[in-house]
Design brief:
heterodimer; A: 194 residues; alpha/beta; fumarase; 5-stranded mixed β-barrel; two-stranded antiparallel sheet; globular; B: 300 residues; 4-stranded mixed sheet
C-alpha cells in the first residue's frame, strides 16, 4: 500500500505501476462529462489552479448544503470513465493533470497521454459511495455549479487516505488490457473457439 | 368497497411509506446480495479481490448507518405497483412522484434526471418517464410497491443479441443463449461494477425482451428457476462466468457474477432475441406492503 500526497510531481507518478494499491490524501477536483467538454473547449484559469499537478476525479456526488452554507458529500463514488476518452488526453496534456480517478478504465488515447505526460489512471471501487464520502474530509468549494448542475459541477475536495488501485500507469501498462485479454482467451476456450 | 380509513389520510401515510421505501432501497442492500458478497470474499485467493469485496460489504453498512445512498448513482427508479380497491393509477402515480421529490430533497436520491434534449438536470427527479412505473391490478385490497434502483454504469453494459450470431457461434437454441450470456459478461468486464447479476430474457421482441430481462432481476439470488432445463443453464453460467477471471471491479479474481436469472417470452418464428440486463453489486431493491387499514411493512 503506497500513500500519495497531492499535488504530485512527475517522479511520484512514474513510481506507480499497474496493480498498485494506493491511499490518496490532499486536494482534488471532480469533473465528468460537462467538465471535460468544457475544459477542452475553454481555458479555465480557476480550474487550472486545482488541476495542475493534481487529480481529476470522475464523480457526480450526492451533496448536502448545511445550514451555514457549507457542503457535505454524502455519496461520492466514481462514475464510468470511458465517456471521457475523447477528451481526457487533451485535459491531461493541457492542464498538466497527474492523476485521473474513475472506474472501468480508459482507452488507448488516455494510456498514451499518461505515458507521454506522466499521469496515472487510478481506479476507485464503483458503488463505494458511502465509504468514499467518508474519505472526503472537506468540500472546499465548487465551480460551475449553476451551469453544469450538482452531479456535473467541479467540486473541490480535501480527501484523506482515499483508496484506489493503479490500473493504467505512466509506462504504457494497463490492467484492463491484461484482464480483457486473459478473460477473452478463457471465453474462447469455453465456447470452443480457441 | 369502503375503506376503513379515509382516503386522504391513507394517501398521506402511503406517501410517507414510499419515502421510507426509497430510503431503504437507496441506503441498504438486500440480505441475499450481502450474503453473496460475503461468500464471494471467502472464496477469493487474491488479496486485492478479497479486500475489494470486504469494502463493498462495509460500504453498505456505513450507508445504512449514515442514512446515505449506498451508491451515488441512485439509478433509474423502477416501480412495480400492484393495487386493489380503492386505489387508482392516477392517484398512485402522483403519490410516487411526490415521494421521489421528497426523497430527493432529503438526499436519499441524487438529482439524477436529465432532460434528453436540453441536457438540463431536473433537480427533483420527476420528469417525462421518470420515475418509471408499471401497474398491475389485483383482486384484494391494498397496495404492494416494489422499487429497484439500477445505476447507469451497469445499464450501459446491457446487450441484446439477435440469433443466429456467427461471431460467437450462437445458434437458435439454449446453447446459443449460453454463448450470448457469457459473451455479454465478458464484454462488460468490470465496467458494470462487477461482481454483478445478469437478468436474461430469451425471446420476445426487442422491447419486451429487455423488459423481461429486468423483471428477472426481482428474483432473489437464491431463487431457482421452475424450468429444470433453464435452471441448469443458470447454474452452468454461474460456474463458467466465474472462471473468466474478471473479478471484482474487473481487477482479476474468481468472483465475476453473483447471479444469473433467465426468463422466457414467446417469440415470432422470424425473431430470436437474447436480452441481457446487467445489475451491479449495488443491487438495490425493496418492497412495501401497504394494507387497507394503512398498516405497512417494508422488506428486502
Amino acid at each position: 500500500m503506497q500513500k500519495l500526497t497531492l499535488p504530485l510531481d512527475e517522479q511520484a507518478v512514474r513510481a506507480l505501476h499497474r496493480g498498485d494499491d494506493v491511499l490518496i490524501s490532499g486536494r482534488m477536483i471532480t469533473g465528468r462529462d460537462a467538465a471535460h467538454k468544457h475544459l477542452c473547449t475553454h481555458e479555465d484559469p480557476e480550474a487550472r489552479r486545482y488541476l495542475e499537478g493534481g487529480i481529476i476525479y470522475h464523480c457526480g456526488p450526492v451533496v448536502k448544503k448545511d445550514a451555514d452554507g457549507s457542503w457535505t458529500m454524502t455519496a461520492a463514488g466514481p462514475t464510468t470513465s470511458t465517456r471521457e476518452e475523447p477528451y481526457q488526453h487533451k485535459v491531461i496534456a493541457d492542464y498538466k493533470v497527474r492523476g485521473v480517478i474513475g472506474k472501468g478504465g480508459m482507452g488507448p488515447k488516455t494510456l498514451k497521454a499518461c505515458k507521454e505526460h506522466g499521469c496515472a489512471y487510478l481506479h476507485a471501487i464503483g458503488g463505494l459511495a458511502a465509504t468514499l464520502a467518508r474519505h472526503v474530509k472537506k468540500v472546499e468549494g465548487v465551480l460551475h455549479y449553476e451551469e453544469f448542475g450538482p452531479p456535473e459541477a467541479m467540486w473541490i475536495l480535501q480527501v484523506e487516505d482515499f483508496p484506489a488501485v493503479v490500473t493504467m500507469d505512466s509506462h504504457g501498462e494497463s490492467l484492463h488490457e491484461v484482464v480483457e485479454r486473459e478473460s477473452g482467451a478463457r471465453l474462447r476456450a469455453l465456447l470452443g473457439m480457441a | 368497497m369502503v375503506a376503513a380509513v379515509a382516503l386522504p389520510k391513507l394517501e398521506e401515510k402511503l406517501k410517507e411509506d414510499l419515502v421510507e421505501l426509497i430510503r431503504t432501497s437507496s441506503t441498504r442492500l438486500p440480505p441475499d446480495v450481502v450474503k453473496a458478497l460475503q461468500a464471494a470474499e471467502k472464496s477469493e485467493d487474491v488479496p486485492q479481490a478479497r479486500s475489494t469485496l470486504l469494502k463493498m460489504v462495509k460500504n453498505q453498512e456505513e450507508a445504512y448507518a449514515g442514512r446515505t445512498p449506498t451508491c451515488q448513482d441512485t439509478g433509474t427508479l423502477i416501480f412495480e405497483v400492484e393495487y386493489g380497491d380503492p386505489w387508482r393509477e392516477k392517484a398512485l402515480t402522483a403519490l410516487v412522484r411526490d415521494a421521489v421529490r421528497e426523497a430527493t430533497r432529503r438526499g436519499y436520491l441524487r438529482p439524477n434526471t436529465v432532460d434528453s434534449v436540453t441536457g438540463k438536470n431536473i433537480t427533483d427527479n420527476v420528469h417525462d418517464g421518470s420515475p418509471y412505473l408499471h401497474f398491475h391490478q389485483r383482486d384484494d385490497d391494498g397496495v404492494r410497491v416494489r422499487l429497484m434502483q439500477k445505476g447507469g454504469g451497469c445499464e450501459n453494459v446491457g446487450a441484446q443479441y439477435s440469433l443466429p450470431d456467427e461471431r460467437i457461434g450462437a445458434g437458435r437454441d439454449l446453447e446459443g443463449v449460453r454463448r450470448c450470456i457469457l459473451d455479454a459478461v465478458w464484454q462488460a468486464q468490470g465496467k458494470g461494477c462487477a461482481p454483478g447479476a445478469v437478468g436474461v430474457c430469451v425471446g420476445g421482441d426487442r422491447g419486451s425482451g429487455y423488459a423481461e430481462s429486468k423483471r428477472q432481476l426481482w428474483r432473489t439470488l437464491e431463487d431457482k428457476n421452475a424450468n429444470p432445463e433453464v435452471a441448469a443453464l443458470e447454474e452452468r453460467i454461474m460456474k463458467e462466468a466465474n472462471t473468466l477471471g474478471i473479478g471484482p471491479m474487473g481487477w482479476g479474481g474468481k468472483t465475476t457474477l453473483i447471479g444469473c436469472k433467465i426468463g422466457t417470452v414467446a417469440r415470432l418464428p422470424a425473431s430470436f432475441f437474447v436480452s441481457v440486463s446487467y445489475m451491479c453489486w449495488a443491487y438495490r431493491r425493496a418492497r412495501l406492503d401497504f394494507a387497507p387499514d394503512g398498516s405497512s411493512h417494508i422488506s428486502q
